[in-house]
Every structure is written in structure tokens, then in C-alpha cells.
Specification:
Order of helices and strands of chain B: EEEEEEEEEEEE
Helix content of chain A: under 10%
Number of strands of chain A: 10
Distance between the termini of chain B: 41 Å
Largest sheet of chain A: 6 strands, mixed
Structural class of chain B: mainly beta
Oligomer: heterodimer
Number of helices of chain B: 0
Largest sheet of chain B: 6 strands, mixed
Strand content of chain A: over 45%
Largest interface: A-B, 28 and 22 residues
Radius of gyration of chain A: 13 Å
Radius of gyration of chain B: 14 Å
Strand content of chain B: over 45%
Shape of chain A: globular
Number of strands of chain B: 12
Structural class of chain A: mainly beta
Chain lengths: ~110, ~120
């Protein structure tokens, strides 16, 4: 597509429920990143996928968080047993090619855990 | 470890004023990349500029200019003759070399331009 698409744009869930957030990167972009933006905070790195390499999961805050990328395209970020501190905007970005430096971000998913 | 500091949390200016957004970074890498992004109310981050650490030339793009000072580890962003449409959150970010690398962001500066 023309840009990075994220769905849903807004999600309200009850504490303890699982949620799935979806990211459709720009077609052909090999790198995909998930970031979390909490109120008053910068963007916190969560996970990074590059082609067929093992993902960099170093930013995932707990084992309740996981992500996968199927077929080198669409990615899903899953948060299990959500907690109120998980409330944030989750942003996805993709980057094209190994030398391309421009990260294109989606509009994010605003997650509210009540 | 990489760190980016944007000490200004929020700035308010009147339209047509000039405004400078500060960015200070920390890194042990000798080669690195610096970025500025704009986040309007829609939420999507818009790429503004990338700067290589080995290129200390300042850059101007229309009303925007960037001052890279390697000696003070700063990469400040100036908007000349600000406009209401400039109202947004601005993020400074740092990336080490290598393709398998991620951006480290500052906490952002919220700029409010009023009439």
C-alpha cells in the first residue's frame, strides 16, 4: 500500500483480556518495527523484524508481549492478560531495503485498558 | 548505550516567531545518524531530516533549519516564522550504524503556535 496501515485505530479492552494489534507495512519493505508511546514519554522500542532473520525482541517489556510477522509482510503484536500500564499508542514502522534510511510510521493503535 | 534528551517538554509561541527545539544525544559510536520527526495531532510520525555524524554541515529546508554540533552532541531544530500548522510534537532520534538497528527517541517537545 501507499503507507503503513495499522488496525484498529482505537481499542478499549478490559484488564486481563488479550489483544491483537495489526500492522500492514509498505509493500516490499523488509524491515518492520513496533514502538510504544506512553503519555508524556518518548517512543519505546519493542521489537524489530528484518527479512527472514530472527527478530530483535530486546524491547519487549514482559513475556505477555509477543509479535509475529507472517510471510515477511503483515505483523501482529499480541498482548496477553492486559494491564492498565499497557495503555499507550502502539506505533508500527517499516523501512525499505538494507540501506534505505527512511522509516515510515503508521498512525498507531491507541490501546486503553480499563 | 544510546540516549536522546529533549529538555523542552512544551513550547508556546505566537505565529511568526522563530523557535528552536533542543536535542542532546549520547552515544559511544563514532558513526551514527540523527533524525527529526514531526507528530501532528493525527498521530503519524512524519520524517523531517536525517543527518550523518560525519557531515556537520547545517541544513536549511524552507523555514526549517538544523544545527548539528558534534562537539556538544547537539542537533537543534529551528523553525523560522512559525505557523499554526507547525503545531505538533517533535521528536529527535538517534540510530547507530548497521542495518539491524533501531531508532532511540527523545521524549519529544510539544510546540503550540497560536495566532
Amino acid at each position: 500500500g501507499a503507507g503503513v496501515s495499522q488496525s484498529p485505530s482505537n481499542k478499549v479492552t478490559e484488564k486481563g483480556k488479550d489483544v491483537e494489534l495489526r500492522c500492514d507495512p509498505i509493500s516490499g519493505h523488509t524491515a518492520l518495527y513496533w514502538y510504544r508511546q506512553s503519555l508524556g514519554q518518548g517512543l519505546e522500542f519493542l521489537i524489530y523484524f528484518q527479512g527472514n532473520s530472527a527478530p530483535d525482541k530486546s524491547g519487549l517489556p514482559s513475556d505477555r508481549f509477543s509479535a509475529e510477522r507472517t510471510g515477511g509482510s503483515v505483523s501482529t503484536l499480541t498482548i496477553q492478560r492486559t494491564q492498565q500500564e499497557d495503555s499507550a499508542v502502539y506505533l508500527c514502522a517499516s523501512r525499505g531495503g538494507l540501506t534505505h534510511y527512511g522509516y515510515t510510521f503508521g498512525s498507531g493503535t491507541r490501546l486503553t485498558v480499563v | 548505550a544510546q540516549k536522546v534528551t529533549q529538555a523542552q517538554t512544551e513550547i508556546s509561541v505566537v505565529e511568526k516567531e522563530d523557535v528552536t527545539l533542543d536535542c542532546v544525544y549520547e552515544t559511544r559510536d563514532t558513526t551514527y545518524y540523527l533524525f527529526w520527526y514531526k507528530q501532528p495531532p493525527s498521530g503519524e510520525l512524519v520524517f523531517l531530516i536525517r543527518r550523518n555524524s560525519f557531515d556537520e554541515q547545517n541544513e536549511i529546508s524552507g523555514r526549517y533549519s538544523w544545527n548539528f554540533q558534534k562537539s556538544t552532541s547537539s542537533f537543534n531544530f529551528t523553525i523560522t516564522a512559525s505557523q499554526v500548522v507547525d503545531s505538533a510534537v517533535y521528536f529527535c532520534a538517534l540510530r547507530p550504524p548497521g542495518t539491524a538497528s533501531k531508532l532511540t527517541f527523545g521524549t519529544g517537545t510539544r510546540l503550540q503556535v497560536t495566532l
